[in-house]
Design brief:
Strand order of the largest sheet: 2-1-3-4-5
Largest sheet: 5 strands, parallel
Distance between the termini: 33 Å
Order of helices and strands: EHEHHEHHEHEHHHH
Structural class: alpha/beta
Helix content: 40-55%
Shape: globular
Number of domains: 2
CATH class of the largest domain: Alpha Beta
CATH topology of the largest domain: Rossmann fold
Length: 228
């Protein structure tokens, strides 16, 4: 199993998110997983300009590290997103990366993969919302959620309890992978309101969102009833 963590913290290996990833990955490595952590602050990730080329032509026109990271997500079996809570949300660099993943949201392709999120905060902001936001980003593309860990770090240290939660999350990830847990993604996700809206958008704007329409057409999703 290949596990990929995208870390939105700027604090590197000394940060709380890196430590949570370390706890989780150590457990996964014991069970035979290959792991990789990408620290987004070390990558070149440009802002999304909203040009829409990814919908009409299939790929973003910008040349930076975003596509390579997206390809690693597609190659991985499990994906972990991590971020501290900054001004009530994920860090800017992680939000920037997620914005650049618009084509992945329009053309979901992470079915059969497993998702988890890790977040840390010092008491300001809704950490549950931040962890759910990261998790929903991956789950919305077809991955199966194995859970999240939200850690309180007022003293910049991760409690033993939260360390164990991260390790347990790693065990849950490996258990789900080996059990081949793969729910009926289409029946589950296509009931979500945002996917019904996206289907309507892609159908009505097919002359613009050409690659999106082609992808959904190939998947057989356009023929289904909107109220499925």
């Amino acid at each position: 199993m290949k596990l990929l963590a995208l870390n939105g913290s700027p604090h590197g290996k000394f940060g709380s998110c890196s430590y949570l990833i370390k706890c989780m990955f150590e457990e996964c490595q014991k069970l035979g997983a290959e792991t990789e952590e990408i620290r987004l602050f070390k990558q070149k990730i440009n802002f999304c300009t909203g040009c829409g080329k990814c919908m009409s032509e299939g790929e973003c026109v910008q040349k930076d590290d975003t596509k390579e990271i997206q390809d690693k997500m597609r190659e991985a079996d499990g994906i972990v997103l991590a971020s501290p809570v900054w001004v009530l949300h994920v860090t800017g660099i992680l939000k920037n990366f997620i914005d650049r993943c618009l084509p992945m949201g329009h053309r979901p392709g992470l079915q059969g993969k497993y998702a988890a999120s890790l977040s840390a905060f010092a008491g300001i902001g809704d950490i549950e919302m931040v962890a759910d936001y990261m998790l929903n980003f991956i789950v919305g593309q077809g991955a199966y959620s194995v859970g999240k860990v939200c850690a309180f770090t007022m003293d910049l240290k991760i409690s033993k309890e939260d360390q164990e939660k991260a390790r347990q999350l790693g065990r849950n990830m490996m258990d789900a992978y080996h059990a081949k847990k793969d729910p009926d993604w289409e029946n589950k996700v296509f009931k979500r309101e945002e996917f019904r809206h996206m289907k309507e958008f892609i159908t009505t704007r097919k002359d613009f969102a050409k690659e999106d329409y082609k992808y959904w057409q190939e998947k057989g999703w356009l023929e289904e009833d909107m109220d499925r």
